Amino acid sequence: MKSFDIVVVGAGIVGCAVARELSRAGMRVGIVEGGAHRGATAAGMGHVVVMDDSPAQLVLTQYSCSLWRKEADHLPVAVEYEGFGTIWIAANDEEMEEVHAKHAIYAQTGVVSAVLNAAELVMAEPNLRKDLAGGLLVPHDAVIYPPAAAEFFLSEAQRLGAALFRSRAVQASHGEVSLEDGTLLQAERIVLATGTECDLLSALPLQKRKGHLAITDRYPGFLCHQLVELGYLKSAHKLVADSVAFNIQPRQTGQLLIGSSRQYGDDDPGVDAAILRQMLERAVSYMPALAGMSVLRVWTGFRAATLDKLPLIGPAAGLSDDTSLWLAAGFEGLGITNALGAARLLLDGLLNRTPEIDAGPYLPARMVNRMEIARA
Asked: In this entry, which stretches build a coiled coil (predicted)?
């Protein structure tokens, strides 16, 4: 049996960021990764973005984005951190009202943004269709390559003494983690950061939400910012119906990463041709020149979603009577953005010290009442 202060189960970007943060604090850390492809980390877009779907989401994403910016100059080139900024696209006057409302919210909370009128939007992104109403530029948002970031955080954790175990965890409770290869790990605390692979705690209130992405051949200079239609927020709100939204990201290679889709109740990892077609048609409707471009690859992934669209960060109290279990899960599409903030909050909780932001909205115990209401 091998003993640690903390065992982190899951080596996606959140688990690796948590392992690094705990190792930095001098804790003896074990980290377990049983999958070959790091789930949502390998499948996601890599958008580091401030989101204001709710006040709590705004606080956490703003905090996490600030931590990414502090690290930016020290990240390896392979992480591909680029401060491209985001432009939220308004298709009509009604959405321009949302742009101004979003701008006001950001101004109140210290997030830098600028309203673009129609002409300014064309200047910023000439390949958008010309009848759009305008947009909101958030210049400090960024883009990364998530697998490289996870690998960097993991290597840093290992450099600081963390031990990596490449085997699937088949049981994790009461201070013990059993691995498929027969290894038994013991720790005072266990952090579950397993994304959608949540069978280690059956009470976890998570749902899989399938998404599609497509990447094109190289078209350098075609796109300068991450572009997202304002309707994306409405799409993300839908809890049942399938949806697509225009979301496109420039890569350092000159390739274009095109999203996005959201589906509940489809556990098949295969590409859904109908949803993919809708997603690409949506993208072409905003950027007509995309129709003539070559798509090199299409893939799917699964987001781990909670009922209130906020992650579970902290002790699993209320979901389990096992006091050794802590959670860093349920990030849906914001695991890349929130990895660093979640790691800080988790460490603060474990050390019983005051965090830089209020941790209350993200504590797993909040889900107990919501689940009871949903069952009523």
From this structure: none
- Evaluate whether 362 touches 338 at the Cβ level (below 8 Å): no
Find the mean pLDDT for residues 63-86: 97
Helix residue spans in the chain (DSSP H): 13-24, 39-43, 55-71, 93-109, 118-124, 146-159, 231-237, 273-286, 335-350, 366-375
- Domain range 2-45+146-205+308-375, CATH architecture: 3-Layer(bba) Sandwich (3.50)
C-alpha distances in Å from residue 25, one per residue of 20, 28, 113, 274, 338: 9, 9, 35, 48, 19
Q: Which amino acid is at 190?
A: I
Name which residue leads in pLDDT, 374 or 358: 358
Could you give the 3-state DSSP secondary structure of residue 279? Answer: helix
Provide, for the chain, the percentages of residues in helix, strand and coil under a 3-state DSSP scheme, each rounded to the nearest 5: 35, 30, 35
Structural element, H or E, at residue 295: strand 295-305
